[in-house]
Structures are given as C-alpha cells and as structure tokens.
Design goal:
- There is one protein chain.
- With about 160 residues, this protein is mainly alpha-helical.
- It has two domains: about 15-75, no CATH class; about 85-155, no CATH class.
- Helices cover about 50% and strands about 10% of the residues.
- It is built from six helices and five strands; from the N terminus they run H-H-E-E-E-E-H-H-H-H-E.
- The strands form two sheets. Strands 4-3-5 form a three-stranded antiparallel sheet. A two-stranded antiparallel sheet has the order 1-2.
- The radius of gyration is 20 Å and the shape is elongated.
Length: about 160
Amino acid sequence: MMIKKDKDNKKSALDFGGDVRSLILTLVNAAINEEVNRWNKDRHVFRTPIDQFALIQSMMRQVTAYIDAPEECVETQVCSNCGSPMAKGFVINDGEENYCSEECLHKRYSKLEYLALYAGLDHTDENVLMSVEQLTDKELDALSEINDSGTFMTEWEVII
C-alpha cells in the first residue's frame, strides 16, 4: 500500500493499517462532541434548518481536521516510537509514553525493563532487572497492583 504524505511529510488517519475503523470512529466521535459542546457553550439555538446545516458543516470541518492530523485529537493515543495512532498497545507510566507494538516498545525498553516498569520497579537498576527475570506472571501482576505502576497493555474502547 502506498502512503500519501502532505508537503510536511505527515500521514493522515487513513494512511495507517491496523484498526482504522476504531481510529476513525474515535476521531469522528470526538469531533462531533467537541462541536456540539462548543455550539452549546456559545448558546446557539437550532431554530432553522440553516442552523442545523451550519452545525453539520462545522462538525465535518472538525472531522476532516482530525482525520488529516489524528495526533491533534486528545482521545487518540499515538505511538511514542513510530507516531501511528493506536487502538491497542502498551501504556507506560499512565500514558507518558504509548507503544503500538512489541517491536516499537522494545526499541525503547528491553523485555526485562518493560516487566520492571509493569511491576512498578526501577527499570534502570541491574539488580531489579535480574530479580524481575525470576518472577512469575502472578507475582508481576501482584506487584503491578500493589505499586500502582500505570504500565500495562490495553485496548482503547471506541464510544459511539
């Protein structure tokens, strides 16, 4: 598949593989909510079909803007490595970093470093990394809960 890029070399939401449907639903939902809230805040009254048409046009401009630049939508998670919008992936420290795949994650963190982060431990300490290697999945899960690590793998729900 050939990916078209604009003059700034940016990709649009339609250029990404994976779960494009979820991404687009997220972008459309966010755009509609944003515009309806803006119109309500500005106290627009929908008295005529022209008012309704103006709202629809405003929504479509916002949808187009989000599809052209999905990273601008706060409801969209973007991979910290490759910049792809994500419907699922790895969250590090409550969203300080997000990774769309193990490949992108492991360009930044080794498997042991990720497990240490998941367990809420110091991923830069060699002794911790050696001890993490010996832990069972059950022990890692318990440490993650106890330490409230904020590092996990997830899928984001698309609300429509």
